[in-house]
């Protein structure tokens, strides 16, 4: 069995404030926001599935960021902390000092609500990324599996991967109108799966597609990102039933749904 060597980088954690430069509704459920600001200079994201922590105004409309102490992030006593969520840096243009982040609009939650209403000039906080994972580039095939929350990372992987890589993408979205244009120098094929009214936490479209995957000869790296319970189930299937080595799988739960709580992990 070929040994494929992955690489991981660690970064010094830094907190910044960033400003909304522009917003654009890409699909019915995806809002693209471009940020800038003097504190953004020096931002670095080495891997397509990096994540940063974004801090949003609290219920009082105030941006209350932590300080980085010996025990991790610490908030000042007596203040309501800014809610924080993890997001993928979709792109960072160093020359323009512009950071692009895509937000899934799902109707609730501090991040989605803020993103849907964001206007140029508004300010939020940014922390990270703390680390970057770079998978080995010598697999015969790469399979990217995810729901709409994974689209920013999937799109960035396709953008950055070179010619000669064989990539298969399986994406679950709410409806056909949520398809985003994807491009790459790599050889890639995309399968879109539309839930068409089924709640994301109750869907099994990704799981069914994975079980129907033809598993071509050669070594394949699997990248999976979706609802946490569903992600674990797909990892378990690959590991227990298809006997895929654990280091050929990178599975990340991007969110949690109450609809999936009763599923077997």
Automatic annotation (TrEMBL):
Q: Where is the FAD-binding FR-type domain?
A: 13-136
Which Gene3D superfamilies does the UniProt entry name for this protein? Nucleotide-binding domain of ferredoxin-NADP reductase (FNR) module, Translation factors
Stored InterPro entries? FAD-bd_FR_type, FNR_nucleotide-bd, Riboflavin_synthase-like_b-brl, SIP_FAD-bd, SIP_fam, SIP_rossman_dom
**PANTHER family, per this entry?**
FERRIC REDUCTASE, NADPH-DEPENDENT (PTHR30157), NADPH-DEPENDENT FERRIC-CHELATE REDUCTASE (PTHR30157:SF0)
Return the similarity comment: Belongs to the SIP oxidoreductase family.
Name the UniProt record assigns to this protein? Siderophore-interacting protein
Q: What species is given as this protein's source?
A: Dyella jejuensis
For this protein's source organism, the top of the classification is: Bacteria, Pseudomonadati, Pseudomonadota, Gammaproteobacteria, Lysobacterales
């Amino acid at each position: 069995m070929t040994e494929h060597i992955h690489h991981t980088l660690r970064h010094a954690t830094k907190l910044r404030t960033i400003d909304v430069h522009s917003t654009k509704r890409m699909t019915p459920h995806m809002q693209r926001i471009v940020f800038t600001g003097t504190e953004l200079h020096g931002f670095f994201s080495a891997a397509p599935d990096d994540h940063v922590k974004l801090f949003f105004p609290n219920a009082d409309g105030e941006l209350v960021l932590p300080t980085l102490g010996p025990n991790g992030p610490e908030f000042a006593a007596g203040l309501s902390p800014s809610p924080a969520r993890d997001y993928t840096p979709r792109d960072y243009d160093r020359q323009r000092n512009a950071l692009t982040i895509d937000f899934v609009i799902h109707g609730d939650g501090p991040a989605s609500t803020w993103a849907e209403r964001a206007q140029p000039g508004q300010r939020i906080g940014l922390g990270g990324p703390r680390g970057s994972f770079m998978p080995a580039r010598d697999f015969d095939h790469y399979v990217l599996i995810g729901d709409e929350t994974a689209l920013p990372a999937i799109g960035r992987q396709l953008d950055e991967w070179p010619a000669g890589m064989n990539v298969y993408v399986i994406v679950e979205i709410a409806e056909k109108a949520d398809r985003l244009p994807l491009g790459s120098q790599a050889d890639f094929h995309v399968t879109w799966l539309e839930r068409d009214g089924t709640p994301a936490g109750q869907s099994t479209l990704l799981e069914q597609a994975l079980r129907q995957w033809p598993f071509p000869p050669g070594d394949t790296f699997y990248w999976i990102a979706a609802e946490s319970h569903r992600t674990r189930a797909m990892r378990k299937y690959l590991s227990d039933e298809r006997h895929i080595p654990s280091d050929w799988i990178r599975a990340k739960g991007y969110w949690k749904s109450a609809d999936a709580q009763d599923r077997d992990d």
